[in-house]
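Run log, item B.
One chain of 122 residues. Sequence copied directly from the ordering sheet:
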Amino acid sequence: MVVAAVLMSGCSSDDPAQAKERQRDYCTKLGSWQDAAHATTTDEADADAGQGVRSPESDDTEAAAHAVVEASKRLDRAGLEQGGTDILDDTVNAVDGDIGAEARAVSYCDSSGFETLVGSAG
């Protein structure tokens, strides 16, 4: 029982500056993923769907998705979730196309004070 308490206490960040930096990093990466994902969506709507060619924008979106998921893992490990959210699950679901999960991730950034780094969901 004591081991579990020690392990759990080691998960949260005691350094407020480090916590804010992790949150800023996450929100910056979430915003970058949103920009790439929304640009890809717009480009795909304009392109001929039958071509089957991977665009550089698609690669950029995948790289941005990977970066934001990794940042959400750091938040999760540091115990920096707020209001009962599961930032890791929401982020993974957002990059998989779940608009509601994206909205929750954006809301996390809003409540963390980094609303200018992200766009609205959808």
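Observations after the first pass:
- The chain has five helices and no strands.
- Confidence is low (pLDDT under 50) at residues 1-12.
Flagged for discussion on Thursday.
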